Amino acid sequence: MSKEVQPIFILPEGTQRTSGRSAQRNNIMAAKLVAETIRTTLGPRGMDKMLVDSIGDITITNDGVTILEEMNVEHPAAKMIVEVAKTQEAEVGDGTTTAVVIAGELLRKAEALLDQKVHPTIIARGFRLAQEHAQKALEEIAQPVTITDEDTLKKIGSTALTGKGAETAKERLGELAVMAVKKVIEVDKNKISFDPDNIKLEKHTGESVEDTELVQGIVIEKETVHPAMPKKVEKAKIALLNCPLEIKDTEIDAKIQITDPSQMQAFLNQEEAMLKAMVDHIKGTGANVVFCQKGIDDLAQHFLAKEGIYACRRVKKSDLEAISRATGGRVVTSLKDLSAQDLGSAGEVREEKIGEDDMTFITGCDNPKALTILVRGSTTHVVDEAKRALTDAIGDIAAALKSGHVVAGAGACELEIAKELNKYAGTLPGREQLAVRAFADALEIIPRTLAENAGLDPIDILVELKAAHEADNCWAGIDVNSGKIVDAWDRGVIEPLKIKTQAITSASEVAQMILRIDDVIASGKQERAQGPGPHSHSEDY
Q1: CA distance 292 to 246
Q2: By CB neighbour count within 10 A (0-12 exposed, 13-18 middle, 19+ buried), where does 423 fall?
Q3: How far apart are CA 240 and CA 363, in angstroms?
Q4: Domain assignments of the chain as residue spans, ordered by start
């Protein structure tokens, strides 16, 4: 008589598990959907997305990484695709949509190979070989660029701004981006370093995007705390405080018992004397401007105004750090420690009305590498998108100078690499050549999408493009306005090499990682106890 075998549970109850072909199919499907979502935003004729969050705030953009971050993606494989966009943004500052679209297409091509019974590890190996060969091919066709090639740098900025909400002012913004990067970039023995924090983008509604301006210094959205304070201070000595100019409350609950009216007056006099001592200490260091991250007491404001000191309170930490870099001042966390050595210096600090708001301009700084671009626009949504576009342009120009090489856009680059990969595939003996050919086909998604988003026939365009590249026209790309094949380099459609190398590397690596997953084990969510009882909780924790 056989005993009944007791089932063995090695995973907790509620755990979901998909494995084998089913797991691969689900992961590829999720990744493809993410890519499809933002594919329509690619190129000069790309459309925008309106994203509404849980509290009703609206973002209108065609910036890939912004869309993906606002979407709150939940699927684990889809999250990996979002990471591709974040890496691209961190490394280059632009090309996020390109990277995600290529990753999605690589997985679509891989799925067709899986259906033909090609093993996932062979596809992954073929993708790795294709990625390495694509990088070499990119480096061969790339053209050099230096900090003196101002015309080329302007074209890079203009290309980054094309297709964004601020495209109407792309010439003006491109010029400002080049000026800003050239001023803050540092060259040391042929090594170029760029700190994006040295360029502060301050946005303000009113006027049009064309009225965006470059300020040699720092602009903060703050006004003086007291109407009697000076509106302009020349030869400014600036104190940066990360402590309140107020009487601190006691750490523990304290009770002060006053039995006589004169005691009350003495108490108030003491408080006034303490605030006066604080202001006297600031004055004694030689400071005539104070930027405080915390609050400033009403009485302290009065004393500062009497001493002719310009003061702003509740200044953001990032603004305080920017002022510190620009003026050479040190942020002090204890007023007692403030000394003349901690003060920053600037040629002028003034209050100026921009639109309906008062803003503080700090110019003539010790460090000329601290700049502010005052981004203007008719509405909040316009100015937000203009700021994102300008961030992309600055990132592109800096990336081009750091790598020292650029390539043409308009789909020319991707098609040239696809042509080289197809040649390379013919030299491989094994099944990897199928994966390399799939990689080459996947790169064609960029010119195809540019054509589709412009309302052109993608098949006709691709046929013409391939013919031009076969005729050794390396920079043949799509003019989305006329629908014709043009020389993208001559048209000034230029992008940093780093955008392409980073996008292809990230897309290839994430596709390989997703292909190698054959088992997804998702832990079950623990359910709360229900119903009455001593241990149940009906409220939210």
Answers
A1: 11
A2: exposed
A3: 16
A4: 16-144+407-522, 146-216+368-403, 221-362
Q: List residues with catalytic annotation.
A: 63, 96-97, 392
Long-range contacts of 261-269 (CB under 8 A, 24+ apart): none
Query: Look-up: residue for tokens 């301050």?
Result: 202
Decide: 452 and 458 in contact? Cβ < 8 Å.
yes
Determine whether domain 16-144+407-522 maps to CATH 3.40.50.1100: no
Quick check: 70 and 59 in contact, CB under 8 A?
A: yes
pLDDT, one tens digit per residue, over 419-468 is 888 888 888 777 788 888 888 888 888 888 888 888 888 888 888 888 88
Whole-number Å distance between alpha carbons of 523 and 379: 45
Residues in the chain: 541
CA dist 514 and 26 (Å) reads 10
Q: pTM of the entire structure? A: 0.72
54 three-state secondary structure? coil
Count of CA atoms in the C-beta half-sphere (13 A) of 80: 22
Q: What fold characterizes domain 221-362?
A: GroEL (3.50.7)
Average pLDDT over residues 361-383: 78
- CATH pick for 146-216+368-403 out of 3.40.190.10, 2.60.40.10, 3.30.260.10, 1.10.1130.10: 3.30.260.10
Output 363 or 534, whichever has higher pLDDT: 363
Q: Interior CA angle at 50 toward 49 and 52, to 5°?
A: 140
